[in-house]
From TrEMBL:
InterPro entries: Chloroperoxidase, Chloroperoxidase-like_sf. This is Heme haloperoxidase family profile domain-containing protein. One of its GO terms (molecular function) is peroxidase activity. The keyword Metal-binding applies.
Length: 265
């Protein structure tokens, strides 16, 4: 009996140690960041990044009453994304809400703020549901970079080019100014960085596909939180290559949008 109790205590100590060594990779029943699918009353965004953070409990699972500091901390903890990469978009996104300091994730569907046409995985607002994942829309990305098992900055640029052409073809109310283009390019750099290598922009297809389709971190499949901090500078370097492969030209002009002392859009 004493032996049994001792071994139970040892097992408990061992598992609590394992937990404290790296809680991000923990996956037991007590893991506070275990993936839990969004329920019927949980609110979610048109953003697979924020939705994944909520599904893993880095943001409130109900998707409500979220502050800018909460988004900044969750992005660092979940993705190793730095404040300079996140804060401008979090502050901008706050305008989607009527509350002074918080947003609900579904507020971000507001068309023309961040939400734009020619998305990777959502329909254009004028054509249907711009909030939820859409497999047909996602098929352009899912079929890109054939013959290899990763996406990169070349394929990401080509996907943006093809989805813009599709949006222009189908959507009589299409909007494609420098603002939308810069947001779309930043989002491409985000998925390559979070699911892959923030310095090379090479991301395993398997990880990216799970992130979009399930809004889940593919930890069980071998993904690890990037060890390289994702910053405005690392994203910017990838964006230069993505832009070069997207053959983009604007349909409309827009004013320069100032997102902070060091960042314009
Ligand atoms: C935390 C790191 C983040 C990652 C990895 C991320 C990733 C992405 C990606 C890949 C998309 C493209 C989805 C698509 O085109 O189908 C997207 C869209 C979006 N993101 Fe995020 N995002 C992050 C942070 C944020 C923040 C801080 C905000 C604002 C509070 C935001 C708001 C949006 C919105 C509104 C869209 C919809 C754009 C559209 O497709 O129309 N995201 N995000
Ligand atoms: C959270 O947001 C809801 C609106 O979605 C609001 O009614 C409620 O008062 C907020 N709760 C807190 C604690 O701020
Ligand atoms: C239509 O285009 C205008 C101008 O770009 C934009 O303000 C509006 O939100 C668009 N509506 C839809 C449903 O896409
Ligand atoms: C992306 O991958 C394709 C296919 O392997 C390759 O041809 C292309 O050069 C790569 N792009 C970059 C930027 O490495």
């Amino acid at each position: 009996m004493a032996r049994l109790i001792l071994s139970l205590i040892l097992a408990a100590v061992a598992s609590s140690n394992a937990y404290s060594i790296d809680s991000r990779q923990a996956s037991g029943p007590n893991d506070p960041h275990k993936w839990v699918k969004a329920g019927a009353t949980d609110l979610r965004a048109p953003c697979p990044g924020l939705n994944t953070l909520a599904n893993h409990g880095y943001l409130p699972h109900n998707g409500r009453n979220i502050t800018v500091p909460m988004i900044i901390q969750a992005s660092l903890d979940g993705f190793n994304a730095a404040v300079d990469a996140i804060q401008p978009f979090a502050k901008f996104g706050l305008l989607s809400s009527n509350a002074p300091e918080t947003l609900n994730l579904d507020d971000l569907v507001l068309h023309g703020l961040i939400e734009h046409d020619a998305s990777l995985s959502r329909l254009d607002a004028a054509l249907g549901d711009s909030l939820h994942f859409n497999e047909g829309q996602f098929s352009t990305l899912a079929n890109s970079n054939p013959g290899v098992d990763y996406y990169n900055c070349t394929s990401a640029g080509q996907v943006q080019r093809d989805l813009l052409a599709q949006s222009i073809r189908l959507n009589a109310n299409q909007t494609n100014s420098p603002k939308e283009f810069k947001i779309r390019t930043r989002e491409s750099a985000f998925y390559l960085s979070v699911l892959g290598d923030p310095l090379t922009g090479v991301a395993p297809k398997k990880f990216v596909d799970i992130f979009f389709r399930e809004e889940r971190l593919p930890i069980a499949e071998g993904w690890k939180r990037p060890t390289t901090l994702i910053t405005a500078a690392t994203l910017g370097a990838l964006q230069t290559v993505i832009v070069a492969n997207s053959e983009w030209s604007p349909t409309q002009a827009c004013e320069t949008e100032i997102l902070g002392p060091a960042l314009t859009l």
